[in-house]
Structure formats: C-alpha cells, structure tokens
Amino acid sequence: MIEYENVLTTCPYCGTGCALHLQVLDNTLVGVLPAKNHVVSEGGLCIKGWNAHAFVNHPDRLKKPLIRKKGKLEEATWDEALKLVADKLGEFKTKSGPDSIAFLTSAKCTNEENYLLQKFARAVIGTNNIDHCARL
Amino acid sequence: MTDRLTSLRETIDKVLPEVDGVLALRSGPGGIVSPYLFSKEHPEELAKQAIWPKEPVPDTLKIILRAHPDAKLAIVCRGCEERGIVEMFKHAQLNLNNVTLIGLQCEQDEAEFCRCAKPFTVHAKTIVGQPIEGVPDPLTEKIAAMSQPEKLAFWKQEFEHCIKCYGCRTICPQCFCNICALEDEKWVETGRLPMANPSMYHLVRAMHMTAKCVACRECEETCPAGIPMAVQFRLIARDVKEMFNYEPGAVMEQKPPQLLVLEEGEYERTGLPH
Q: Which range of residues forms the domain containing residue A86?
C-alpha cells in the first residue's frame, strides 16, 4: 500500500510563522510544499522554509547533548549536561555577580519558551541581560 | 463549484477500486489544501476532497512514481497540470503507462486568476466539469507592448525584489535537472542578498524554461516578492511556437525542440541567427 500525504506545520526557522506542508511518502519525510491558502505565508516560503525538512533526518543532527572534556566533545546524558550548566551558572553568579551572565533566545523557540528564558534570566539569575539571536 | 466537486467525488469513487491510489487535493486542518493520495484503505478521507487552490500535483506524481515505478495511479489534473505531466513524460521524468488522467476543467474565475489561455485538458479520457474557452492575459499583453528599454526597466525593477528563495525553481514541475545551473556559483553568487545581479538568476531560469513552461503559474503563486515571472515564459513560448511549431504538453507524439536534431536546411526555417 502506498501512502502519500502532506502534514501541515509551522516553519521552525523564525518567528514569522509561515505555514508549510511536510511531504510524507510511506512514512518518510521527502520534502516541503508551501500552504497556498494559509493567511500568514499565502503559499510563499523563504529558502530556509523550502529546506525545513532537510535537517530532520540529517546524519549531522545532534541527538544527544555534548560536553567538552579535555578539548574534545563527548556524548553525555541530559542529566549530566543540565547539571554542568546549572553548576557553572551558579559558580559564575556567586563569583562575578548575575550581570556577568547573558542569555540569548532563539527565533526557533516558541513564544512561551522565549518567555520562560527571560523569566529565568530575571527571576532566577537576576540579570536583565537577555537578547535575541536576530541581534547577534 | 459544488457541482463540480460532487462529480469529482463520484468519478474518484468509480476509479478508486481499479488503482492503487488517486492523487488529488485534500482539505486539511483549517481548510488548508494540499495534495493527497486517496486509497481504498482510507475511504474516510474521501469526504475531505478539495478542488481549489490548485497545487503542483505533477511533481507529487513524480515523487510517488520514483518510489513505486509499477504503481497503478490515477491523478486529478487541470489543463496546465496535464501539460506538465505530458512534458515530464517526454523528458523521461515519469512513466505514464500505469497512470490514469482525470481531467478537471477549470471554471471562469479560476482561468481568470491564472490568466490562462488553455484552462482545459486535452489528453484525459475521463473528464470532470465543462471545458471553457481560454481567457486573455492582460499583463503579458501589456509587457509585450512595451519598448525594449521599458521592458528592461520593468524586469530590472521586478527582479530586484527577489529574495532568492529558489521557490520558483523548486516548485516548477519542469525544473528537474539533477545539477541546477542556478546553484552554480559561476551564475548565482551565494551568501548575498539582494543579489549582485538578480537578472542573472531570472534570465538563466527563463532560458531554461524555453519550450518547457506549461504556464501553470506555480512559480508566480509561490513568489514571496510577487514577480510576474510567468509572463517571460509566455512571451518566450510565442517565439517557440513560431520557430518550432511546438506547444509544451499539447501533442503527446511531438518531440520537444530540445530533444530534436535539426536536419540540413531546417535550421534556416527556424529563423534563428547562424
């Protein structure tokens, strides 16, 4: 049995919110089609949207956190990675004060995730150093 | 519109038992339409059939046939899509042996939206809707009537809006080269926007569309900058018709000029400079 369908989703690359279809053939992602009658993108996409499927099954995609040990990146568990980040953030805050730390959010995140990061920066760390990848 | 959708549903119901799937349009979440392969195994999807907006279905057919060369498929296609499929067949992009064409005839408003000269199918044996006459293309006529410097100024200004999304190239059912000239640094510089010379991208593409463009306007529809690029292809198509008596997608047996070797004396007849 042959199965082909288009799955409607939102482009993951920036905050514009263009709609796109992921072309799925026999349960495998094969491409992208724009969504013509969608109010935001009206059938258009930029070059990133047109290639939004490319990273999903790419061999270079990171699936596990990496920790640099002796100059070399090594695979780690999420618990290990998060503990390292928490320890370091705490250490820097105690040693050099909260304003020694800055946070950069991402257009690939949702509104809610971006809100959480600024909340974390302000309420947990205690700094207003929060900015966005578009201004990097 | 409803009448045509009803008769399309009836036609698909009739064809479905004889094939592995029928490629047509389905209305998804929020009424967003996309190509879908209807099958006997999922009869519940049949109620979600849609007609408009049209989608680049010839390319979808190619994707499915590449993975399933022996599949017996039917496809609901409009005039332009049928021409696209025929032209892809002539360029060995897909095999039509096991493909049933269901010709969906466009209605007046759809033809006017596309400024379409041929909003009807000519090859499909099964037809849905009544064929209508082609409509005029005021935009193409307006640009055709311009002087050379006016044309140059018009296109230069249009091309400057290009955001280099490659959407026109990607969505085009006739753009199927494995190695694309537009990805060659020699012609199109990477990493810069706006392009240093946007005309290069668009004119290279225009030349590559010669005797191939089937006037489906998918490129114009997907262009975020609203460049009326199909106009170029339509004007080139007039020259191709005059020089080679060739219309993409019209006659199944007629070889496209790119695949012909001209005999002695024939070259003169084309009127091309020596």
A: 63-96
